[in-house]
Amino acid sequence: MSECFKFPSELTIYEVQETFNEIKSYISDKESVSFDFSDTTEVDSAGLQLIIWVVYHSQKIGLKIDAISTNELIEKRCKKLGVGMSAPQND
Amino acid sequence: MSIDLSSAIATFVTESKELLQEMENGLLDLESESSEEHTSEIINALFRAIHTIKGSAGIFDFEHVVTLTHIAETLLESARNGELQLDKDLISLYLETRDATEILITLAAAETEPDQDLLNKVNHLVGCFSKYIDAESSNPDEGISAAKASGNLLDNQRWIVFFVPNENVLRNGLDPYSFIHYLDSETQDLKVSTWFDAMFGPQQFDPESNYLSFILSFNTDKTEEEIKDVFEFILGEAHVAILPPHGDADVLKSSIQKYQDIDFVTNALKQADPALADIIELLSQKKETTNTELAGTSPNPPTAANTSKIHKSKTLRVEALKLDRLIDQVGEMVITGARTNLLAHETGNETLIEAMALLERLVENIRDSSLKLRMVQIGETFNKFKRVVRDIADELGKQVDLTIIGAETELDKTFVEKVSDPLMHIVRNAIDHGIEDPETRRAQGKPEQGQLTLKAYHDSGSIVIEVSDDGKGLDQERILKRAVDRGLVSANQTLQEKDINLLIFEPGFSTAESITNISGRGVGMDVVKRNIDSLRGSVEVESLPGQGSTILIRLPLTLSIIDGFMFEVHKENYVIPLDTVVECLELHEVVSEQDIQDKSYINLRTEVLPFIRLRTLFGIEEQIDHTRESLVIVQFGTLRAGLVVDSLKGEFQTVVKPLGRLFEGLKCISGATILGSGNVAIILDVSALIKSAISVYEALEKKH
Q: How large a percentage of chain B has pLDDT more than 70?
């Protein structure tokens, strides 16, 4: 089981740049990754966009996604936007 | 990790320039096109060109290019739908936009910000487009009723909103999701399709830029205005288009252009409203033919005439430097082949000599094939003049029709590049000084519209480019007077007509009464002559007073490797292009020694043929026996002369090597070549030799 990347409680335009930098450094030396959004209770379009990016980007570059822990808010918003977020399968 | 985009940008610049050139040609064709079908095809091609440039510029963040092409594209969409006629003013606006876009792309690629003048120009163009767009959309009710009247309505039962927030929307404090959330609370059964693939493009993902765009569908009993109000605060930062049930197809057509992925659009629409099956089907078909052609709903299949407007051949883009290197290497192979052939002959081994002959033929084939790689059609260069002629004629208040003949004639790419500027000067001069204004032409019984013809063809180993006009022709009296005033000729000197005409190519020569922006400073025509000379070409002028002039440029087919003809003079080898050789004779069989003493011509089958003894030309005092001399008859254009040489050596594949600057001033010499033995042979300039023979002949005739 890989070390998990925990997203902050607030993931808005004010936090995305810093979080993005941390994610890049987190995934740079990994073969498999895990993401935890369960504590994120405030999210805007920028935050949702970053969540989409990290999940799909990891998949695109061939990282194995061990787990994605999410919460009701994120799930609901992703569902509203029609974006599937349950751990995508690697090819 | 950052991605190096420099090579992608270089490709973008090259491709954009080609698209802009196509755009210019299309716009100029539009002015003269009367067929509705062709007009529509040209407008579609223009749209695709602008759309492609805009899309690519967006990838590289070339903001000014995107701004300008976006608005130009928006207005073109109306022309595409048949709502707007592209008249001369609009064509001029698009031509100006084309020019500005080219400059903006060049600057953006060089990471240089445009100066204030250019920005003002861009703003002015954007303003002009906005005026047209505002006028188009000033009465939306009219649009709806027109749509209804034309039956251009869709079958959708649900409301659809196309929502494409721009890139900076997040940075500007707007949250697209909140608008969707609010819409959800105001309507029923909201379905959202989100497109986010843009964030995986070639540029590094920037979390503060927006990459999301949406297609929303819902049911509601609210009015269109009320739905629009939901997006009120983001309208300036996003494309928002509302398609009510049974909405106007044009809204759909213009909106789907905003999305970069046709698969996404078809899937989203399928999900939004199954009643849109027909339009989805149409989009799927379009997708198969082209990715950029999203919006066309015209059922007309492309005709043969349509496809011929856009020449799509299977081509491979190769760096010019690589081709030059290949031709250099082929040149070296030819030289080494000649050396090996010589050695094979020295051995006397017949099998080896035969094998060498076969190899030499193959080398010849490779030489011809590789030289052909550099050949391009002159039509591309000629087409550029459509714009020049249009602009200059407009500026001078003249009417000029340009006819292009022989656009498919091929010549070496080096020539195309170098001949472009001289042609420009000649064309400018023809319109400025040659073709009269409409009133004068009418008074002289000529049609008001002047004719300018650019013609290219192959003629005995040369490429000939003719620029002719039906203007007033050259005023020889004035040319001669000006030449005497300027000391170019003496007052008592008598010149033939063709020589007087050639005086216009003397430096600083101009008979124009007034200097215009176009021409008249006498700078240019001498440069024309110099450029043509540097290509081993020649210029001739034919003119008939009141009927027009023709300037004739004659260029060799290639500069690098030629089929040569070798002969010997005073134990040295000399080469001339084989194409210029008409025949070879033994001199004593044509004329006796006494008959040509102190003469510079011979009577060859009742024809007077000026000749030149190369021994005399090269200052060799020692003479050889008359019976050993040979006569090579050469022709360049319409001129013919004889060259008296010591002995003939025959055909020789000649790799032309330029001579150093030391030899620049020497007339009659155009280069050198290396022989199989390693010796150097001088390549002679036949045009200069003939002229020299003719002038010696004329000088001696005058004495007698």
A: 88
Contact B207 A45 (CB under 8 A): no
Per-residue exposure over B156-168, b if at least 16 CB sit within 10 Å of its own CB, e if not: bebbbbbbbbbbe
Long-range contacts of B365-371 (CB under 8 A, 24+ apart): B366/B330, B366/B333, B367/B330, B367/B334, B367/B561, B367/B653, B370/B323, B370/B326, B370/B327, B370/B330, B371/B327, B371/B412, B371/B558, B371/B560, B371/B561
Per the domain annotation, does A89 fall within a domain? no
Please give the model's pTM, rounded to 2 decimal places: 0.52
In this structure, the number of other CB atoms found within 10 A of the CB of residue B660 comes to 7
- Residues A39/A47, Cβ–Cβ less than 8 Å: no
Residue B525 CB burial class (10 angstroms; 0-12, 13-18, ≥19): buried
What are the structure tokens assigned to A61, written together? Answer: 């570059």
pLDDT at B212: 93
Does the beta-carbon distance from A80 to B180 stay under 8 Å? yes
Tell me the pLDDT tens digit for each residue of B303-317. Answer: 333 333 334 445 677
Instruction: Assess contact for B21 and B15: CB atoms under 8 A.
Output: no
Q: How far apart are alpha carbons B551 and B395 in whole angstroms?
A: 23
Nearest CB to B212; choose among A17, A49, A80:
A49
List of long-range contacts for B694-702, beta carbons under 8 Å, 24+ apart: B694/B610, B694/B639, B694/B641, B696/B600, B696/B610, B696/B612, B697/B600, B697/B601, B697/B610, B700/B598, B700/B599, B700/B600
Measured between beta carbons, the chain A residues lying within 8 angstroms of B194 are 81-83
Q: Where residue A57 sits, what CATH number does that domain have?
A: 3.30.750.24
Strands B669-674 and B639-645: unpaired
Helix (H) or strand (E) holding B631: strand B630-636
Query: For B177, which of A19, A44, A82 is closest by C-beta distance?
Result: A44
Classify residue A85: in a domain, yes or no. Answer: no
Give the span between the Cα atoms of B71 and B69, in whole angstroms. Answer: 6
A83 contacts in B (CB within 8 Å)? Answer: 194, 196
* Cβ contact B179:B163 at 8 Å: yes
How high is the pLDDT of residue B466? Answer: 93
Pairing of strands B607-613, B601-604: antiparallel
Number of domains into which chain A is organized: 1
Domain span including residue A15: 2-79
Q: Given an 8 Å threshold on Cβ–Cβ distance, is A49 in contact with B211?
A: yes
With respect to residue A87, please indicate whether it lies within any of the assigned structural domains. no
User: A3 vs chain B: nearest CA distance in angstroms?
Assistant: 22
Q: H helices of B379-524, where? A: 379-396, 413-429, 438-443, 476-485, 497-502
The terminus-to-terminus CA distance of chain A in angstroms comes to: 19
A26 belongs to a structural domain: yes
What is each CA distance from B191 to B245, B247, B397, B585, in whole angstroms?
15, 18, 60, 92
When CB atoms are compared, the residue of A20, A53, A83 closest to B194 is: A83
Q: For residue B553, which of B468, B669, B463, B470 has the smallest C-alpha distance?
A: B463
Say whether residue B395 is in contact with chain A using an 8 A CB cutoff.
no
The whole-angstrom separation of Cα B653 and Cα B363 is 10
Contact B1, B204 (CB under 8 A): yes
Distance between the two ends of chain B, CA-based, in angstroms? 86
Q: Is the pLDDT of residue A52 over 90?
A: yes
* B281 — pLDDT class (breaks 50, 70, 90): low
- Alpha helical stretches, state H, B458-574: 476-485, 497-502, 525-534
Write b or e for each residue in B553-592: b if 16 or more Cβ atoms lie within 10 A of its Cβ, otherwise e: bbbbbbbbbbbbbbbbbeeebbbbbbbbbeebbebeebbe
- CB proximity A67 to B under 8 Å: no
Q: Is B204 part of the contact surface with chain A (CB cutoff 8 Å)?
A: no
